[in-house]
């Protein structure tokens, strides 16, 4: 036998009227042809009424506390939300709020879309591809520095000093005259790179116009060292690895760079011919590298 439907609005009105007339629940059940327990349950629910939900006051998190939580989460990646907040001496925060804050911190931001290339950009990319189509890219020195130093802005002077302290003193001066003569130095069009000051400084160091590769605008997809950076980043952040200081990040970068397989570098270098042909085939458009 199927279960009867809930009381209708009309039946509820009749129950109220019968109660006002002094009828018992059994009599009302007989009049409505309903189970007396259904009538009794309706009367009890009506008498109790619905309890209003009392919202607990929510604890607001300040910007200073958020920074503390972010640092604690980086040092305690496997800890619970309660342990992380307690380590920061932050109490009274609901579990749902704690978890939402930590989830938001853990979100990986999507890479920004590349800006669309205009007609001038595409023409310059095609001209560049035609110019270097027969180049021996094994002689090209690809650069793409990433420098982090608090309070220092990378301008032309600091860029040249950076090259002096790292590239020239530690590596370039040890190379033979033949290597220096045939080498091609690549740098992008960042203002600190393409300035007259930097160009003149490089010329004094022996890297003159003939050894300096021109670079088309908006073209990170043509630089194989960008792919090398991706390999290094995947290595240092694998398995959710986190770092608490710049020194620890730098040590990880150095270790990852030393472990890069020489065949990978060779493959990236040899990919340049294909990149140039792809640029020409796409009439200067972005390529899939």
TrEMBL record:
GO MF annotations, alphabetized: nucleic acid binding
Annotated InterPro entries: RNaseH_sf, Tc1-like_DDE_dom, Transposase_5
Top-rank lineage group of the source organism: Eukaryota
Tc1-like transposase DDE domain segment(s): 168-238
Name listed for the protein in its UniProt record: Tc1-like transposase DDE domain-containing protein
